Prior knowledge:
Chain A is α/β, with parallel strands linked by helices. Chain A is built from 9 helices and 7 strands, in the order βαβαβαβαβαβαααβα.
Amino acid sequence: MAGQLEGRVAFVTGAARGQGRSHALRLAQEGADIIAIDIAAQIDTVPYPMSNPGDLAETAKQIEALDRRVVTRIADVRDRDALQAAFDAGVAELGAPTIVSANAGIAPMSLHPKAQEWQDVIDVNLTGVYNTVEVSKQAMIDTGKGGAYVLTSSTAGLAGIGGNTPGGIGYTAAKHGVVGLMRTYANTLAQYSIRVNTVHPTGVNTPMVVNDAMQEFLQSDPAMGQAMANALPVPMVEAVDISNAIVFLVSDAGRYITGVTLPVDAGFLNKR
Amino acid sequence: MAGRLEGKVAFITGAARGQGRSHAIRLAQEGADIIGIDLLEPIPGAPYDGATQADLDETVRQVEALDRRIVATKADVRDFDGLKAAVDAGVAELGRLDIVSANAGISTQMAPTSQLDEAMWQNMIDTNLTGVWHTTKAAIPHIQAGGRGGSIVLTSSEAGIRGYGNIAHYVSAKHGVVGLMRTLAIELAPDSIRVNSIHPTQVDTPMIQNTATYDLFTGKAGSTKEEFAAASRGVIALPIPWVEAVDISNALLFLASDEARYITGVPLPVDGGNFLL
């Protein structure tokens, strides 16, 4: 059976590992070629090891193993010019995307908070998403085929659950801000049949969550740990569950879904 | 490739035509067997004809053409005992229950709230809200008995998220469906039974393609389909006048499948976008 995304090109940020790699692979499995970018470097306020160039190369290798084409670039979503250059390089090789997954994000939460966390998480998780849409939207409009953006927010984009540190407050504010971006772009891009939605994962089994600093942070406050429990009997979801929601939203099966906040949260938000 | 619902059984209300028939066919295409019910009677105050036995027979024919089994029965979602008997018989024949689409719904009198007829109000609540509760009440024990989890999808409406003038009974019932969904999602999560609602905008089915609905949207008597399309486009962000039944079916399929195994308690609009959000 032909894939649901045969002949399409997808632009994925934060594609080196974790959810981003899963999205790139899942989209490729359905037939899409991939423009994959990642910072592949550390940000000082982030208390867990971030991705590296080897991770991004591994994503590319796995996409190629699916017989799909991939263009990788190391780029920081905070740097509009660098992001534009990376995007343009991908377009030059693969053509313009009709799918964008604005996935890159950080979680600078720890028991040793620093004031700079606020600015860094706003820059990456909110401005980075804005930059991702801005560098890609005209090319998508120019295809004349419509398309779909999925912006990765969080359960913390719909509830005040990030905790009381500069990074946690900033994370919650940034992820809420992504919803505002989504709603605005959904309205302004609808005339081009370009759809824009958000996904809101609960905790996902990736290096951003499953690391010593985050586990220490979550366990430091038992009330918060309890409040973070899902309704369905699973402690976390897997990256592929978010990827499957994205495939649905960007495929023709979701052709009239836009402006929607879609939780993939094991019932977390509903049970609050 | 194996279907995404291979080996599963789905219970669909309002299965004779429109969205319900589309749901039955789409789920059957992905491998599910179907238990389908429909009222098959005229609906008092409805500006369109009720579904008929011939309609339900056509759903049966199309499901069987996909080499899937279907147990189709005349039953009324307002009548719990009759509904339960239909579900019980379907499960007895097909062996299990995994998926519920509470789709049956009506559209009737359109009038200012202070002028709505009391019988019209009551019949709307009985069908579009109590009927959904009956559907879940009859189905839940069978899903639980399987011990494999499951997926319940309640069809609400754009009118379950926002208000519309002159259909207070419909808006109230569809909002109530969201309350039922949120409650069931909490109650059934320990059994890995997921519960979500779908919120369609105007769907190209007999329930909206009628003069009364045209007039509701345009605000003037005797409106044409073209005038309705123009008015409907005005409330949808994407450049479309309405969506097709299969678009709702595709959302149902996603929510019913393992691809959405951790999605529960979610109201999912399929509405082409709403400029007011």
